[in-house]
């Protein structure tokens, strides 16, 4: 006969004796087993967590300072352990080796005996680690101390079938007041740091306030700057508008002056044209008068002969004076026109154009007019040699040739022919042909009379 034993997950059943698998006890956790009497034995081990106080009184540190350390550890017999399966997720499997070791050490032992064994082991490791640390290191870094104790104790507890679940330092004390002094020093240091921090915070607060005030002032200054910039932009815009208005007014005034100048120029042009027309008509009238007077003088000379020569000479002198006065008048008119043209550049240009158009329009007539104006100078040039003679004697000639004054007129006529040929060779215009208007007299014969009279008058003056 025997007995059926049922065990929960917090207990381990060790079956030993004949019939066990091999010579090693059979371990059952969270199951049941039939144990026959006489042949087999059943022993139980608790797998529950045990909390043990570890005290190390008056333990020497690295510099010989005696301190008392109280630690708290939690241990248990290792019933299960994690194992990594092929799926990657951890899996719990029964830790048979640890249970057998615990059974070897603790079957039949009381709870207090088991805890005392564990506490003795942990206290030994705790003292050994205290001997390598200073009080300051122990005080400042308890977690490092706990880690070193766990590292050393794990292996020994594993050999006992135990598993160290946790270990922490509960208290550290000494009878000489070293820790209290260290705490005071640390407290004062912390206070000092706190005061420094408070001062720094106060200064930072003041600095932040100053910075905020500075930012506010900068914003105010920036706003004022923008206002001043806006006012300056408005003033610049007003100045530009005023400048544009002034430019527009100046342009309007200039346009007005330009239009007035153009109007005055037009008036001057019309007046000049009228003056030119009047001068042209006057020249034609005077030319006709001269031609008529010369014809009358010619006829009188032929009719009255030598008896009326003196009278004719007087008339010729009057004609010469009249021609000189007329030339002077025309000269004055020309000078006045030149002065007006110098003052008005545009009028001068138009006047030149009008003269060019007049020469182009009248052609040979205009050229003849100019030639007539210069004939008195030609007459004086021809008569200049005669003016140097003291006396002229007229001798008759046979064969019906001219004699006396007639011979003089014949010589003068020849000179006029030579001048006319020269002018015709230069200009292509024959003055004699132009002046042909009377079939009874040749053109050069009408010119010969004034030239002869001029010669006589010049000789008479000497």
UniProtKB/TrEMBL annotation:
GO molecular function terms attached to this record: protease binding
Coiled coil: 213-244
Gene Ontology biological process terms from the UniProt entry: protein localization to plasma membrane
SMART domains according to UniProt: PHB
Single GO cellular component term: plasma membrane
Superkingdom, natural source: Eukaryota
Primary localization: membrane
Subcellular location: Membrane
SUPFAM superfamilies: Band 7/SPFH domain
Similarity remark: Belongs to the band 7/mec-2 family. Flotillin subfamily.
Protein name stated in the entry: Band 7 domain-containing protein
């Amino acid at each position: 006969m025997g007995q059926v034993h049922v065990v929960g997950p917090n207990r381990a059943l060790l079956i030993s004796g004949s019939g066990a698998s091999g010579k090693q006890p059979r371990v059952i956790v969270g199951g049941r087993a039939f144990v026959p009497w006489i042949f087999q034995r059943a022993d139980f081990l608790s797998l529950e967590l045990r909390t043990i106080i570890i005290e190390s009184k008056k333990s020497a540190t690295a510099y010989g300072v005696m301190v008392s350390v109280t630690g708290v550890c939690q241990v248990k017999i290792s019933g299960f352990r994690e194992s990594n399966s092929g799926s990657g997720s951890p899996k719990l499997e029964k830790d048979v080796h640890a249970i057998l070791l615990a059974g070897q050490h603790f079957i039949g032992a009381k709870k207090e005996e088991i805890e005392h064994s564990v506490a003795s082991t942990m206290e030994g490791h705790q003292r050994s680690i205290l001997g390598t640390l200073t009080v300051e290191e122990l005080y400042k870094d308890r977690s490092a101390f706990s880690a070193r104790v766990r590292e050393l104790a794990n292996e020994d507890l594993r050999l006992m079938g135990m598993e160290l679940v946790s270990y922490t330092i509960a208290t550290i004390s000494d009878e000489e007041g070293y820790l209290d002094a260290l705490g005071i020093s640390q407290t004062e240091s912390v206070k000092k740091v706190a005061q420094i921090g408070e001062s720094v915070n106060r200064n930072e607060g003041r600095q932040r306030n100053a910075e905020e005030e500075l930012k506010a002032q900068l914003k105010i200054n920036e706003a004022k700057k923008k206002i001043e910039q806006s006012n300056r932009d408005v003033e610049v815009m007003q100045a530009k508008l005023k400048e544009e208005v002034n430019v527009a007014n100046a342009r309007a005034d200039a346009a007005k002056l330009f239009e007035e100048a153009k109007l005055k120029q037009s008036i001057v042009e019309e007046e000049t044209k009228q003056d030119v027309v009047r001068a042209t008509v006057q020249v034609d009238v005077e030319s006709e008068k001269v031609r008529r007077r010369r014809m009358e003088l010619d006829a009188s000379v032929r009719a009255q002969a030598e008896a009326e020569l003196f009278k004719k000479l007087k008339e010729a002198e009057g004609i010469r004076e009249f021609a000189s006065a007329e030339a002077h008048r025309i000269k004055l008119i020309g000078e006045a026109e030149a002065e007006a043209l110098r003052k008005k550049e545009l009028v001068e240009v138009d006047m030149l154009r009008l003269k060019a158009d007049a020469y182009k329009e009248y052609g040979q007539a205009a050229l003849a007019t100019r030639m007539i104006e210069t004939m008195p100078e030609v007459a004086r040039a021809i008569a200049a040699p005669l003016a140097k003679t003291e006396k002229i004697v007229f001798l008759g000639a046979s064969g019906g040739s001219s004699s006396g004054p007639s011979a003089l007129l014949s010589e003068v006529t020849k000179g006029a022919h030579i001048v006319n040929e020269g002018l015709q060779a230069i200009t292509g215009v024959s003055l004699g042909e132009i002046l042909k208007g009377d079939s009874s007299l040749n053109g050069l014969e009408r010119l010969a009379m004034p030239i002869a009279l001029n010669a006589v008058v010049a000789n008479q003056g000497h």
